[in-house]
Amino acid sequence: MSAAKTSQRAAGGVDWRDVPLAPVILVFGPEDFIASRAVDDVRRKLRAQNPELEVTSLDAAHYTAGQLGMVASPSLFSEPKLIEVGTLASMSDDFLQDALAYIKDPAPDVTLVLLHGGGVRGKKLLDALKALGVPRVECQPLKKDAEKAQFVSGEFSLARRRIDAQAVRALVAAVGSSLSELAAACSQLIADTSGMVSSDDVDKYYGGRVEATAFRVADAALAGNAPVALSTLRHALATGVDPVPLVAALAMKVRQVAKVFSARGSSAQLARDLGMSPWQVDAARRDAGHWSGPALVTAIKILAETDAQVKGEAKDPVYAVERAVIVIATAARR
Prior knowledge:
Layout: H1 3-11, E1 24-28, H2 32-49, E2 54-59, H3 67-72, E3 81-86, H4 93-104, E4 110-116, H5 123-131, E5 136-138, H6 145-158, H7 165-175, H8 179-192, H9 199-206, H10 210-222, H11 226-238, H12 243-260, H13 267-274, H14 278-288, H15 293-313, H16 317-331
Parallel strand pairs: 1-4, 1-5, 2-3, 3-4
Helix pairs in contact: 1-6, 4-5, 6-7, 6-8, 7-9, 7-10, 10-11, 10-12, 10-16, 11-16, 12-14, 12-15, 12-16, 13-14, 15-16
């Protein structure tokens, strides 16, 4: 199963990357980027069937009675129609009544796409759509890094390109706060690179981002590469990166290594048990090869101290984070 479909099925509903055509389609949820991609997919499929597709947009919040029936009525030459209705979360009572009547007997050669941003407004219509088995595209925000990683993998799979696991993580760390930014970053890497996309490619385009820099410091420190960890850290600090996200990245990496250190089982099984994604389990296991139990205890203690220091307890937070990186990097086995 593809990463895109896995992510979608976790959320429920139909796959937003491959929306099945139907007389009525509900696009539901607050993530505008996913909603726009779902609508684009419907448009593309309908235009592939007939380039003369007529597209009409309606606003459910400012709807007046009779509009839907008028727009859906057959045209002179009977061209197929796509009607996109937005702002269902603020729908007028007139729209609710007209929509309830329309979905019971949709017009032929018309596709009605209903966009609802979430919430309970129009519950009567939502329940009626569910009872009729109308395809529902879930548009929920991707909050977990594992979901964003699946999204990135799905974008590359669709483009028939490959990206390695470390590059996926680096890209999510660099631009994962916005799904539209993440999609744009995927498009840029697909367009501007060839072959397998690596973490070096991600670093070239997005290495200046705070999160990506923090994870490069953490990766080097946990691998026992003190010179690289320190030089990367000092460059980050010199360019204005705050010590707090640097310590947070180190702490996250150490926690992941501690979780898998004595664990047994497949990556998929441990991912379920530990609340991590399989690629995070694999990366943590690789890092764990550099560590002993006592060394992990040392790393956890220094990070607890450093976290408090960079958040106000120390006069010199830069010195505190440098000391933590040195202790961690030297505790790890090369």
